[in-house]
Each structure stands twice: as structure tokens, then as C-alpha cells.
Amino acid sequence: CDPEEMDSLVRDAWLPIFRMYDHAPKPSWNVFHERFGQFIAPKHDMNIHALTGSQLLATVMRMRAASAPGCDSWSVDELKLLPLPLLDRLASLLNLVEETGAWPAALCESVVSLIAKGEGTSPLKLRPIGVMSAVYRLWAATRVRQVLKWQELWIDGQMHGFRKEHNAEDVWWRQALQVEEALLHADSLFGLSLDYGKCFDRVPVHIVLQLAIEQGMSRRLVLPLQTLYQSLQRRFRVG
Description:
The chain is mainly alpha-helical.
């Protein structure tokens, strides 16, 4: 298949999903809050400090060396070789990003690969995986550990996704016991499973980030995520 034809097939299939709001208004935060605000947990302010080179060093040593590089070609292996004084300088750069929301252009680029899901090879049967710069991933991996600690201040005990010491077995084990009990006592038991097509690609990110602010997430994290999202949106509109 001709590369230009392949590119056209992918764009025709995915751009209507990535650019859902080109011809329709974005979902309103006020409408969302009016409908679901009662379910938002009480606010817990997240207090974090400026990044340090030592924090970046601790994170990069946990990162997989085999991780693919982004558009800037920096690899995790190369970041692991940086001495602490250079990581301190990198931390200063990332602190400036958090304070201003302005990212270096090279860190806003992403390589998107289409990964097979075992459902066929047409564009919408493949999963688009974006690979950001290893420097961006170093920042995100460092801050996400702090986000997980803050999250424990307000998250509901019945939620098990993206939490330390929680996994799928916590859900399946409880359900298995309920099934066993229903069978033992000949009781009726009903369940509902939902699978949303292209779910994460359709999530209104501006709503998610406003929710983070309402929950008390530090603006040092929300601001750079907002500007990065806006940058990616502009690229899809142009592209």
C-alpha cells in the first residue's frame, strides 16, 4: 500500500474522533458540574515543591531502559547517564515549565504508532499509542508518584484502578465470592458490563483537568498539562 494512501486512510478514520469539537461545542463544565457535582469528593489541596535533580535521578533509575525514544531521540539510557548537576539543570527547566505552562517545542511532539488489538487491520481496529519524549515521561513519572499519594486522601475505597496495592484481583475476587454465594443459596444475581468504543480518545480533557482543580490538584501540574493538551489539539487541527 502506498504510504500516502495509508496516511490518508488513518487520517480519514481517526481525525473525526480526535477533532470531535470542530463542528460542535465542547461539553460545558457548568453543565457537567450541575449534573455530577454532588458526586465530587471534598477538596483536598495538593502541596508540592519544586523538582530537584535528585528526584529526577530516583525516577529515571526506575524507568525501563528499553523504552522507545520520542521525536527528540533522547533515550532513557542516555538520561540515566546524566550526572546530578545536569539533572539539576533539567529540573530547573521543568520547574519553569510548571510555573509558566510553556513547553519547549521538542517536548510537545509525539510519535503515534497503531498497535494491533487482534480485531483486524482496518484503522479503527488498531489502537493509537503516542510516545512522548523521554524527558516528558521523566517529568510525568516523577510527579505521578506524588499524585498517587494525594489521590489517597479522597478516593473512594471501592475504586481500584491506578492505585498502589490495588489491582484487578480486588474486583474479581469480590465478584467471584458473590457468584459463589448466589449459587449456594440459589439466589438471583445480575451484573452489567459496559465497553465504550474509543473511550479514552473521546474523554473531554478540559473537563478532566477542571475536575483536577476542583479536587485540589496543584496548579503546578494542571497548567503544563493544559498547555500541552492545547498544543496537541492545534496540531490535530492543522494536520
